[in-house]
Specification:
Oligomer: single chain
Radius of gyration: 23 Å
Number of domains: 2
Length: 284
């Protein structure tokens, strides 16, 4: 009979590449929380601030109450919440109270990064806009996970994963490959998670800039722009390059066949025109 191995003892202090850095985490749900989870896994000390009156269950991040927990487990430890908030510490503060505002100002003074997914106008009403936070910690890296870019027509609007999948064109990708014309949302929180990856990378880039210059900065990570950029790598619909002899033209969608003496290489539905063809490509 084989013996059951004893579980390894976890390190009592962070040992990853971001150990020694502290992040004040005002993100919730998935997008920003996924980003700070990645940084916590890499050793950062992430202090998650939760609202006691989130409107679901007993308060805190609403993802505490999403999904099904095993019998006997605390109801406020939903599976998604546990996955994207591991390696973090948590504190509940009602920022409408003056005592909580004093507490968060003290926390900010000890932090390297301020990360939030609250709408920016709401942060300013709480006295937590970039200028106010910078006044407390001049070299702070302030990162805002937004739904849409602040210089665009949807600035300040709320955003959810399915909205961003639709607005970015992601919901239109499957109909272009499987013959079913109905736009569909992918059955995974891809917009949230892709944006979270962008946010994690943006934070580490800003920290590198600070290490080199001593300067903090404001960083905006809008979901729509992140996911659109992610999609446009291979979904520009013939708009990649000008049609001249010095460029490569990329065809996106179904496989194309060559016309004329020039060669088209096809890889998973992407056609690369190596020289200008005489005539337009047709589906083959």
């Amino acid at each position: 009979m084989s013996k059951v191995k004893q579980p390894k003892k976890l390190a009592e202090t962070a040992t990853g590449p971001l150990s020694g850095l502290r992040i004040l985490d005002l993100t919730s749900v998935v997008n920003g929380a996924y980003a700070t989870q990645i940084l916590a896994d890499q050793g950062a000390d992430v202090i998650k601030l939760e609202d006691p009156g989130s409107g679901r269950g007993g308060g805190g991040d609403i993802m505490r109450w999403a999904g099904h927990v095993p019998e006997g487990c605390p109801r406020d430890m939903g599976p998604i919440f546990l996955t994207i908030n591991r390696n973090k510490r948590s504190v509940v503060l009602d920022l409408k109270k003056e005592s909580a505002k004093r507490a968060i100002r003290k926390l900010i003074a000890t932090c390297d990064v301020f990360a939030a997914s609250v709408r920016y106008e709401g942060l300013k009403r709480l006295g937590l806009g970039y200028e106010e936070v910078k006044a407390i910690k001049p070299d702070i890296v302030y990162v805002h996970a937004a739904g849409y870019g602040s210089d665009g027509p949807y600035a300040g609007e709320p955003a959810y994963d399915d909205l961003i999948q639709s607005a970015s064109g992601l919901a239109d990708v499957l109909p272009r490959t499987d013959g079913n014309p109905v736009p569909r949302i992918l059955p995974t929180l891809v917009a949230d998670k892709v944006s979270g990856l962008f946010m994690a990378q943006a934070i580490t880039a800003a920290l590198l800039h600070r290490a080199r210059t001593g300067e903090g900065q404001f960083v905006e990570v809008p979901m729509l722009e992140c996911v659109t950029s992610f999609l446009l790598v291979e979904h520009l619909y013939d708009q990649d390059f000008d049609r001249d002899s010095n460029t490569i033209e990329v065809f996106v969608g179904r496989l194309r066949k060559k016309i004329g003496p020039d060669r088209i290489e096809t890889v998973r539905g992407l056609g690369y025109r190596l020289a200008p063809l005489e005539g337009e490509p047709v589906e083959g």
